[in-house]
DNA sequence: ATATTAATACCGACCGGTCGGTCAATTATA
DNA sequence: TATAATTGACCGACCGGTCGGTATTAATAT
């Protein structure tokens, strides 16, 4: 009744995996659906059994990719209650681990930014919901900062602004590192940044 | 002998102005050369009398746009020798003034990022020389930080890493603000960031 | 002054190529 | 055999860039 070589979800995952490979190597614009199909070892038409459009494939590819870091983060966060340690972990995972594990894949994030901004005033903007993504992380850091202030570790700073700035710095460093990975050592820069940040917000 | 309605350079500027308007509204990919031509009130073919390709128009548009901030910056820097003040000015101009003056135009920067990254391994990469652009600003800040350390205002920090982080934060904040200008007040966030930064690097 | 010639600016119809998406035909499964 | 899954040839829209022709101006000739 339901003849199928593999499970429907499994096949979708396979397509996403192929898409991740191609998108990160060629970028959104230069990637052709036929590339994705061939990489996945299937016909082009098959993709459209699982996805509506190229945009949808791209958006789901990005989210698929982001799940990794989300899981890493949740796992790490569950192991400590110290706000200082949480900040360290957030930067370490978000910047160092993500890039070291899959540096070449990160340019997909740039594409997502670009497409997301481009889509701001179109109907596909819900696929590229950057705002929601940022809200999520901003809230996460905001809560950590609030905790720190409550417990007296941090100065009474504007937590939302600071959270925004932390995420901002991480994004920006990622950008610069992608442009020229030899310029600075990512781990070292991350540590310097964390130190400087804590220097600025810790109560003396 | 040289029949021409307006000066050749003037016309090129007019095209760039039109291009700036269209590129910032529609992004690189969605902008058609005919859009630029119509906005400039000329024929499509005429553009190719002044530029080699769409990529060249885009690259020159971006540089044209960046000159504004460069001039602002040089002017402001020439008025003080205080490293602390220079840092303030850099952030104020780079983040607040640039966005307040022409917020809607800034999405062109994202496109430039995206195209620049995409062009990394192609022959047009010299048109989208992001690396050089970043090097310029990084050096600028690096020098300011060195001065500050020499004169004893700043702690002995890694200046290159710190410079990278400062630029990174500014880029990232710009991104977030473009995504949602209502989320935070740019001026306030810039001030908070500057305060936090100085808190972290100033000698006590 | 006017006609003629020359040089250049300007234009937009057109071309070649590309690519996302469709669908009739084919293959695999039960 | 019936049904579901897969495929890739095909379609139509799109677009960057070209090129032959026209318009405009200036220089020169008469």
Please outline what is shown here.
The structure is a homodimer of 204-residue chains. By secondary structure, chain A is mostly helical.
Work out the strand percent of chain A.
under 5%
Low-confidence stretches of chain A: none
Count of domain modules of chain A = 2
Instruction: Please tell me what the overall shape of chain A is.
Output: elongated
Alpha plus pi helix count of chain A: 9
Per CATH, what is the topology of the largest domain in chain A?
Tetracycline Repressor, domain 2
Major sheet size, sense and barrel closure of chain A: none
Structural class of chain A, by secondary structure, is: mainly alpha
Helix content of chain A: over 70%
Mean pLDDT of chain A: 87
Outline the structure in words.
Two copies of one chain form a homodimer. With 204 residues, chain A is an all-alpha fold. Chain A is 75% helix and 0% strand. In chain A, helix 1 (8-30) crosses helix 4 (54-77) and helix 5 (83-102) packs antiparallel against helix 7 (130-150). The termini of chain A are far apart. Chain A has two domains: 1-51, Homeodomain-like (Arc Repressor Mutant, subunit A, Orthogonal Bundle), CATH 1.10.10.60; 61-201, Tetracycline Repressor, domain 2, CATH 1.10.357.10. Chains A and B meet through helix 1, helix 6, helix 7, helix 8 and helix 9 of A and helix 1, helix 6, helix 7, helix 8 and helix 9 of B. Chain B binds a DNA duplex (30 and 30 nucleotides) through residues 1-5, 11, 32-34, 37, 42-46, 48-49, 53-54. Chains A, B: One of its GO terms (molecular function) is DNA binding. Chains A, B: Residues 32-51 bind DNA.
């Amino acid at each position: 009744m339901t003849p199928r070589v593999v499970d429907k979800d499994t096949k979708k995952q396979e397509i996403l995996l192929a898409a991740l490979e191609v998108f990160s190597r060629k970028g959104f614009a230069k990637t052709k659906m036929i590339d994705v199909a061939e990489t996945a070892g299937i016909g082009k038409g098959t993709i459209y059994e699982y996805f509506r459009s190229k945009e949808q494939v791209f958006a789901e590819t990005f989210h698929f990719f982001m799940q990794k870091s989300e899981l890493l983060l949740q796992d790490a966060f569950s192991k400590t209650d110290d706000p200082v340690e949480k900040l360290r972990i957030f930067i370490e995972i978000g910047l160092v681990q993500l890039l070291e594990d899959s540096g070449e894949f990160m340019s997909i994030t740039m594409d997502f930014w670009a497409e997301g901004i481009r889509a701001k005033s179109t109907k596909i903007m819900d696929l590229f919901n950057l705002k929601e993504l940022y809200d999520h992380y901003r809230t996460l850091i905001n809560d950590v900062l609030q905790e720190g202030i409550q417990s007296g570790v941090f100065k009474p700073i504007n937590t939302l602004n600071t959270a925004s700035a932390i995420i901002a710095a991480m994004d920006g460093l990622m950008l610069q590192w992608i442009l020229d990975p030899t310029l600075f050592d990512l781990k070292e820069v991350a540590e310097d940044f964390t130190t400087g940040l804590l220097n600025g917000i810790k109560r003396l």
